[in-house]
Amino acid sequence: QVQLVESGGGLVQAGGSLRLSCTSSGRTFSIYAMAWFRQARGKEREFVAAISRSGGSTAYADSVKGRFTVSRDNAKNTLYLQMNSLKPEDTAVYYCAARLTIGSYLYTTTESREYNYWGQGTQVTVSS
To answer: Per residue, what are the HEC states of 26-73?
Structure first.
């Protein structure tokens, strides 16, 4: 079992930046591929970014490419999402997710159903 806790959300003006963190407790963090998803009010949850166990492979939604950067520090059991040039349409609850991944250090997936564990979410609001 792994517990995930997100932090770093808040209110920011358009064009601003935020850095989200997701801290893991429980089993060894480095055996999990990780991802960020978001869900805006009245919309379905959508993929934002993913990173492999080693951090050597990443994936991004087209809507955030060039603006968001996903990273991880396995020594600190922490996942990050650096969000720059924020837009009002980035407003959502952001969730981190973990997928137990045995064998491949470069595996990533954009499919929410592939992830075993989820955090409680952190609200990001971008004002225009």
So the answer is: ECCHHHEEEEEEEECCCCCCEEEEEECCCCCCEEECCCCCCCEEEEEE
